[in-house]
Amino acid sequence: MNLKELRGQLGFLRYYLAMIFVLACLFYAGHEYADKKNHLLLAKIDVMQSSIDNLTRENQVLNSELNVKKVELEVASIANEQAQLTYKEYMRREAELREQISFYQKVMAPELTQDGFVVESVEVISTASKNNYAISIMMLQRENIKSIIKGTLKVKLQGSQNTVPIEYDVKELLDNQQDKMAFSFKYFQVLELRVTLPEDFIPEQIEIKTDVYKFKRKRGSYARTVQWADAFSEAD
Known about the structure:
By secondary structure, the protein is an alpha+beta fold. It contains three helices and ten strands, in the order H-E-E-E-E-E-H-E-E-E-E-H-E. The strands form two sheets. Strands 3, 4, 5, 6, 8 and 9 form a six-stranded antiparallel β-sheet that branches. The chain has a four-stranded mixed β-sheet with strand order 7-2-1-10.
C-alpha cells in the first residue's frame, strides 16, 4: 500500500469518526431536550392534579353545605306548616268564642236589644268599582209574639283619612241617594246598600244606631258597632 492510498483511508476514517461524533451529539441533545420536556409535563400534571384535588374538596364542602341547607329548609317548611295549622285552629276557636259571646249577649244583655230587635249580621263586599262596596245588614225580631217594628237606621263609618280620625254618615256615601235607611218588618229584613268611600279613607268600624218603634210608640234604642275587618269579605 503506497502513501497515497494510506492517506485516503485515514481521511475516510476521520470523516466516519466525525459523523459518529455529530450523531452522538445530536442524540445527547435530543435526549436532554426530551428529558426536560418530560420534567415540565410532570410538573404541569402535578399542578393540575393539585387543582383537581382542591376542586374535589371544595365540591365536597359545597355538597355538605347544600345538604345542611336542604335539611334546614325542610325543618322550616315543617315548622311553617305547623304554624299554619295552629293559626287556623286559633281562628276557628276565636270564631266559636265570638258566636258564643254573641249568643249570651242576646240572651243575657237586654240592653243590647229592644223588643227583640237585633242586627244579626253585617257583611261588606268589595265591587269591581274602585272604593265601592256593597253593605248588607240583616235585622231580626226575636220576640215570641211578633208585631211589626219600625225605625230608621243611622249608619256611620269610622276610620282615618291621611292619618286623621274621621267619621262619615253612610247616607252621604250612597251611590243611590234614593235608597232608604228605614226598616219595617215582623220577622226579619235585609237592608242592601251600595257606597263609594272617599279617596284615602281607611274604614275601621261600622256604627249602627236606631230607635225602635212598635204601634207608633218608641220602645227603645239599639246600638251596635262592628269592626270593618270582621264584616268585610272578598267578592267571589
